[in-house]
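Quarterly update from the structural biology core.
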Amino acid sequence: MTKRFHGKIGEEYALFERAYTHFNEFQERIAKQVSKHCKGKKVYPILELGCGPGPTSKKLLMLNKKAILTAVDNEPLMIAQAEDYLQQYEDRVYLVQRDILEYLDNMPGSVFDAVASGWTLHNFDSSYREKVLRGIYRVLKPNGIFVNGDKYAQDDADKHHADFNWSIEQFVKKMAEKGHHQLCYDWIIHMGFDEDPKRLMKERESLSELERIGFISPEVIWRKRMEAIVSARK
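Predicted structure, tokenized:
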């Protein structure tokens, strides 16, 4: 899998938070959906794919106090930042630097009560992503939950384009106007690559793909602009 967060864009990843007023709500809703599903369990393992510097990881650990989290990312820089950011949870989190598909392929089946991800799967081309989704399905326990917060393009093209333009405006206002011109440029280029038809995740198509793989009742449980949260059970 291509590494998309090396260099400056990875070093300054925290500035990404400033560009999205719904950043914290997004992370919290992912964690709450996992917590709601796993309520009543004494201890339960969660797998997070693409942990980055750890914002979704922290919410998962804060709201799921009985959870043991395994967080996987292929970027050394992201893992290093996550180690620092999640120090207080070191007894409940295992950080793994590895390609996500490689990790899934080497895991036995029916291991995790929940698999979660935030802003990760949109980085994959469709063929790689399908393999990852099938791997997620395999490692989930029966009735386990998959919660993915990500860029899901609205099926209405005009609405999607409006959301995309809004996101670009946020980068300009929160980065370029504050002097982070190169970083703003890097993020806009990143956003442009995400629009590649081989990578773009459309809402309706994404839900249908989950059903084809075998997931039960995939649905969008939250949306703000480009971002939506999809939940499905095994």
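DSSP finds ten helices and seven strands in the chain.
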